[in-house]
Amino acid sequence: MQVYHLYSGGKDSSLSAWILTRLGYEVKLITISFGILDNWKYARDTAERLGFEHQVLYLPRDTLEKAAYMCIEDRHPNKAIQFIHERALEEIAKMADRISDGTRRDDRVPFLELPRARSLEDRFDVAYIRPLLGLGYKTIKELTENLFIVEIRESEKLEKADYEVELRHLLREKGIDPLEIFPKRHYQSRVLGWREKRI
Amino acid sequence: MQVYHLYSGGKDSSLSAWILTRLGYEVKLITISFGILDNWKYARDTAERLGFEHQVLYLPRDTLEKAAYMCIEDRHPNKAIQFIHERALEEIAKMADRISDGTRRDDRVPFLELPRARSLEDRFDVAYIRPLLGLGYKTIKELTENLFIVEIRESEKLEKADYEVELRHLLREKGIDPLEIFPKRHYQSRVLGWREKRI
After folding, report:
1. What is the tens place of the pLDDT at every residue in B7-19?
2. Nearest residue on chain B to A129, judged by CA atoms?
3. In chain B, what residues touch A128 (CB-CB under 8 Å)?
4. pTM above the 0.90 mark?
5. Is A22 in Cβ contact with B23 (below 8 Å)?
6. In chain B, where does DSSP find H-type helix?
């Protein structure tokens, strides 16, 4: 029972990956890159520390270009992040019978509402598993704290492998300051390892 | 880390209970009764076969009376089942820091929409965990088939410990045929044991 799991190296995607292994799945972590930066290496590094199999999946640069224009048009990154996430899910859905991500009940973006989640499952004949969907803030916090050593920093300063990093970079290349588009003081997390060996 | 988990003996609430143990929680199964029938015994029996701690929680008969009138007014059981489920969650929320149930992503009733789930957590200062919320039909099916020996029958014929059984009984006592109110050919499940010992 193999699952392809979208992975950034953050605590949500790491916790989800652990839950999947606890349910008996063989988990392959997939990190998205547009080939502009090599920040996928942070996810690879965390994946190795946790003992998971890891693969980089390259999406077309065109997808990131579209996302950048969405940011510029909206002066906000939400639509762009959602757009990239859906393309990422569709790409891994072509490669596996089961796909997964670390989106949470309380997330607004990226997040697939139920009809959209079902549409993804139907169009690609996959099972889409979201291990954190039924967990609230407190539960995620207690599980994460028990399991992982976590580094938390402002997005601009964190060495991380999520879509935002290449998106910010491309905006800068276009002469746009990402700080005008992304929320200020947005904290993100990166997992550095297990508290004690768990898989 | 103890969780009080609403339990009917069906496959969804059994699968959720197993997932909770896999996440490291100490699970106490709670079956609701209104003290009219002793069908909670089926849940107790399954709980014992699976090796879980089990407790019967009695709700006031008045709650079932209100639910019966909802059924009669609506000619449909959805509102009544939702009403009982929310009262049940509130009662166990008074007894524990973490509560749980087996509701699924694709369920319509009983089901707490996100604002209602958050309200429950805030009013009772609990974490409300729904292990199946992020899993679709295929995933639940494959996990259940791997784990449990399951009996599936029409609701009217299944010996089971969910709210419906006492609700149907009370309607009959009031001279109302439950078949006029509950959907026809509604199949339900009861877990009979592990395929192989899992906890």
Report:
1. 999 999 999 999 9
2. B135
3. 136
4. yes
5. yes
6. 11-22, 40-50, 61-74, 78-93, 114-124, 137-147, 163-173
